[in-house]
Design brief:
about 70 residues; 3 helices; flat
Amino acid sequence: MLSSIIFYSLDKAIRQYRKLAQANIDRAGIAITIDQWLVLRVIQENDDLTQSDIGDRVFKDQARWPA
């Protein structure tokens, strides 16, 4: 059963948290996503990072060109 697998439970909890956080942002009338906010925050704190560095800090996969 999936609910007995820790990774499933973690992923489910993270998704529920993100929905709640995005709903709070939306209610505040801010037209931005959680991911956009995270990127802007990282740039604010470290304005000399490459795109790859920013992606690493916000836990995003690098875009890959099709083979």
